UniProtKB/TrEMBL annotation:
CDD domains: DLP_1 (cd08771). Residues 496-588 form the GED domain. GO terms for molecular function: GTP binding; GTPase activity; microtubule binding. This is Dynamin-related protein 5A. InterPro entries: Dynamin, Dynamin_GTPase, Dynamin_GTPase_CS, Dynamin_N, Dynamin_stalk, G_DYNAMIN_dom, GED, GED_dom. Residues 31-299 form the Dynamin-type G domain. The keyword Transit peptide does not apply. It holds the Pfam family Dynamin_N. One of its GO terms (cellular component) is cytoplasm.
Length: 588
């Protein structure tokens, strides 16, 4: 069982080393899940004396006002033989055999964190004591509860201490050691008051009654010690600490323990309770109870740790690797990023991700709809046909078919197709917003090339008419009338209407062809080129950058950087905890 308490000691040390004090709600906390014993009491309740009696050493700072200004995690390790010594978590390789030096180091380390301003801090101090006169036990000594701030302290210190104490003892894994002086009314006890708030049924509270020997003559604490005045699940334990005179005379702790045993054994009121009174009994009871609580929590701890490791690894994976510090590492990281970007970009185009369907929608719906909206009928109205045909004939009317008139009608109609053709090209960059702005320059260049090629298709149709289509016209005209009619007959409505109908048929034929060729042009010049050369463009741009510019490219939100560091530390903690618990579980 001793290894279980040692296990929790190691995990608590790891928590503090890696910044887990149970306060940061933005990160999962292992500290809150670990069983612990918190020592709670008001100032002058005898709290420090109780701890020193359990340890058997005089090692805690003393004085007036608030002496304990940081939580002290006191880890006791029983050794079979050898000289007693102490070690601090912040001085891992330094052994203290002089406990007066331990007291001074506690004060100095408190000042290092809080300054000499009598402020308080929730960052704990870790102190391990190795002795043959202790039981294996871990206690957390919290600042004493107070009702009034002293000189040099803000008025808020009263509430700050109470809030700190409450954050420890309200956790379901915390065992509360409530210290109350017997020479004061229990109803006014600060420790009992705050313990009752967080543990109303007294299921995890141990009551300790101090200063029993200082009660007024004719009074005793039997009702309290027997649980009649205030009932807890666990029996009350009374202790008799050294008096101030004993402390001033440096009375030996071992002698003080002996006098404490004699007091309870020889005092008639407490004689029947002597077997469960005293600081030695208190230490043994707490050690045994802590061991049983830890043992019951091991399966839950293992489950929590395994689950949290998966969550931390998942979030770290989403945040990505930290930014490299050297130029080579930065260049490699940027190249990896652009490779990933290029792969995702191609997936958008190929339909693995959303985006490629928008290109197809332009080809299949937007372009045909835009061509359909072109007002060819209005362009080929009777008056416009007459105007263009007569203008094309000039002073010499056409003989068989108005070839120049046809050309002008067709060219002016086909020019209007440039609008939908350009719109088809311009519709493509909306995808750029979805895949990121890094490719804008390259995609703009490809778009210009695509637009140029697409407009050339329209211009080709304008510059050369399909001859086979018009070779049928004389035959058709023979069927519809005699071409040797008079000049005035050639410009009648029926004749012009037939010209307009022929031109419309030709324009529709051209539109049908462009509906197929424009998408091919866009895909070849823009989509295919983007898939083929976007990565090359990125690498070419990277080659132009100086080493100091690479760092600027990788500038990251400081909040994300800090989050990654915090998550990495917390993951390190949980992995260490996993290994520690697994080793204990296997050894069992």
């Amino acid at each position: 069982m001793e290894s279980l308490i040692s296990l929790v000691n190691r995990l608590q040390r790891a928590c503090t080393a890696l910044g887990d004090n149970g306060e940061d709600s933005a990160l999962p906390t292992l500290w809150d899940a670990l069983p612990s014993i918190a020592v709670v009491g008001g100032q002058s309740s005898g709290k420090s004396s109780v701890l020193e009696s359990i340890v058997g050493k005089d090692f805690l700072p003393r004085g007036s006002g608030i002496v304990t200004r940081r939580p002290l995690v006191l880890q006791l390790h029983r050794i079979d033989e050898g000289r007693e010594y102490a070690e601090f978590g912040h001085l891992p390789r330094k052994r203290f055999t002089d406990f007066a030096a331990v007291r001074k180091e506690i004060s100095d380390e408190t000042d290092r964190e809080t300054g000499r301003s009598k402020q308080i801090s929730s960052v704990p101090i870790y102190l391990s004591i190795y002795s043959p006169n202790v039981v294996n036990l871990t206690l957390i000594d919290l600042p004493g509860l107070t009702k009034v701030a002293i000189d040099g302290q803000p008025e808020s210190v009263v509430h700050d201490i109470e809030n700190m104490v409450r954050t420890y003892i309200e956790k379901p894994n915390c065992i509360i050691l409530a210290i109350s002086p017997a020479n004061q009314d229990l109803a006014t006890s600060d420790a009992i008051k705050i313990s009752r708030e967080v543990d109303p049924k007294g299921e995890r509270t141990f009551g300790v009654l101090t200063k029993i020997d200082l009660m007024d003559k004719g009074t005793d604490a039997v009702d309290i010690l027997e649980g009649k005045a205030y009932r807890l699940q666990f029996p009350w334990i009374g202790v008799v600490n050294r008096s101030q005179a004993d402390i001033n005379k440096n009375v030996d702790m071992i002698a003080a323990r002996r006098r404490e045993r004699e007091y309870f054994a020889q005092t008639p009121e407490y004689k029947h309770l002597a077997h469960r009174m005293g600081s030695e009994h208190l230490g043994k009871v707490l050690s045994k109870h802590l061991e049983s609580v830890i043992k019951s929590r091991i399966p839950g701890l293992q489950s929590l740790i395994n689950k949290t490791i998966i969550e931390l690894e998942s979030e770290l994976s989403r945040l990505g690797r930290p930014v490299a510090t050297d130029a080579g590492g930065k260049l490699y990281m940027i190249m990896e990023i652009v490779r990933i970007f290029d792969g995702i970009f191609k997936e958008h185009l190929d339909g693995v991700r959303s985006g490629g369907d928008k290109i197809y929608n332009v080809f299949d719906n937007q372009l045909p709809a835009a061509l359909k909206r072109l007002q060819f009928d209005k362009h080929l109205a009777m008056e416009n046909v007459r105007k263009l045909v007569t203008e094309a004939d000039g002073y010499q009317p056409h003989l068989i078919a108005p070839e120049q008139g046809y050309r002008r009608l067709i060219e002016t109609a086909l020019v209007t197709i440039k609008g939908p053709a350009e719109a088809s090209v311009d519709a493509y960059p909306s995808l750029r917003v979805e895949v990121g702005h890094a490719a804008v320059e390259s995609l703009e260049r490809m778009r210009d090339e695509s637009k140029k090629a697409t407009l050339q298709l329209v211009e080709m149709e304008c510059s050369y008419l399909t001859v086979d289509f018009f070779r049928k016209l004389p035959q058709d005209m023979d069927k519809g009338g005699n071409p040797t009619h008079s000049l005035f007959d050639r410009y009648n409505d029926s004749y012009l209407r037939r010209i307009g109908s022929t031109v419309l048929s030709y324009v529709n034929m051209v539109c049908g062809g462009l509906k197929n060729s424009i998408p091919k042009s866009i895909v070849y010049c823009q989509v295919r080129e983007a898939k083929r050369s976007l990565l090359d463009h990125f690498f070419a741009e990277l080659g132009k950058r100086e080493a100091n510019q690479l760092g600027k490219l990788l500038d990251e939100d400081p909040a994300i950087m800090q989050r990654r560091v915090s998550l990495a530390k917390r993951l390190e903690l949980y992995r260490a905890a996993q290994a520690e618990i697994d080793s204990v579980a296997w050894s069992k």
